[in-house]
Amino acid sequence: MPTILTNKLFSLYVRLRYPSVPANLRYFYRDTYNCEMTQIKYIFRDFLFKKKYKDIYFSGEFAPELQFALPFAYWHHLNGTLRSTHSSKFTKELYFFSENHFEDFEIRTNEGNYNFELPRILYSHDYDMRKWVAVPLKKHYQNDVYVFSKPILIIANRYNMEWDGPPISFYDIETLDFIISKLKNSYTIIYNRPRPEHITTDNSDTYDLNEYDWLGKEHPEVILMENLFKENKAKANNFNHLQLMVYANASKFISVHGGTAALASYFGGVNLVISKQGPEHHFNCYNHLYPKLSGASIYHAKSNDEVRSLIEEHYI
Fold it and tell me: So what's the pLDDT on residue 164?
C-alpha cells in the first residue's frame, strides 16, 4: 500500500509535470506511479525465479476487475507464477485459467478498487502495462448452442445509480426503439440488462427502466438474455457464465460505460459505448484501454444523437 510519504512525493511530481490536470483527477496519476512502484519488489520472483507464488485478490467493481485484475492474473498464469485467484461470487468462469480460484467476496466495494498490487487501478494516463495480457474469453467460450440464422447483436444496457445520483448513461426506450427498428432485420438482437439477483452487486442501486414489458409488446422478436438463462440450453453455471457463452458468439455490441462496456469489449468486432460523463473521457479510455481487451473497434458516444449517428455509420 502507498505510504503518506510516497503519496506526497508522487502528488508533488504530478503537480509539477502535469500542471493543467484538474485537481480532482490528479490522484489517478499519482496512483499510477504507486502501482508501478509496487511492482518493483516482484522483479526477481516474476522474471528470475518464476515459481508459483502469486495470490491475486480483488473485491472491487466489475469494470476494473475486467480491465486490470483479470489480465494481470492471466499474465501470471502465462508466466508460470500464478498460485491462486480470489474474487467475488460468479467469477470462476472468468478465471477459467486459474487452477485455484476462490469466490471469497459476496459484494463488490469501491474500496476494493484500490488494490495497488495490480499494474493499474481505475484510470490512468499510461496504459502501457507490462504485466497485462488480454484473456481469450471469446476463443474459450465460443460454442454451437447460441447460433442463430442472423448475426448476433448484443444490446447491453444498465440503469443504475451513478456517482451517488440518478442514472446518466443508459439507453432509454426511445433510443432502444431507434436501435431495434433500424437493426432487427439484419441481426438477431439479444437484450441484456442483468437483474441484481443475477450478478454480484456493488454499492450502486439498480432501478427499473420498465423496458421489458415494452419490448414484449413492441419488439417481441428481441431475445432477452434472462430468458436464455431460464432455458439454459448450454447448462451455464450462473448468469455470468451464460453471458460469456452468448457474447463469445457475437461480434456486434452496443453497451454502456463501466463493467457493461468492458465485458462487451472482450469479444472483438465492434462495440459502441455510451458514456456521457466520467474520468474515462479525460483519460480517453475508449481509445487507449478498451481496444486492448480483444482488438475490438470501440466507438464512444457522448449523447443519444451520437448513438444514432454511430449506428447508421457502423451497424447498417
Answer: 79
User: Which single residue is written with the C-alpha cell 439479444?
Assistant: 190
For 113-146, the DSSP string reads G--TTSS--S--S----SS-----HHHHH--SSS
Task: Return the closest-CA partner of residue 132 out of 142, 143, 121, 141.
Answer: 121
pLDDT recorded at residue 150? 98
pLDDT, one tens digit per residue, over 7-43 is 999 999 999 999 999 999 999 999 999 999 999 999 9
Domains of the chain, first to last: 4-134 (no CATH), 140-314 (3.40.50.2000)
Parts of the chain with a pLDDT under 70: 200-205
Do 143 and 249 touch, CB atoms closer than 8 A? yes
Note the helical H segments in the chain: 4-17, 26-40, 43-44, 62-64, 70-79, 137-141, 173-183, 211-218, 225-231, 239-248, 259-264, 279-283, 285-288, 304-314
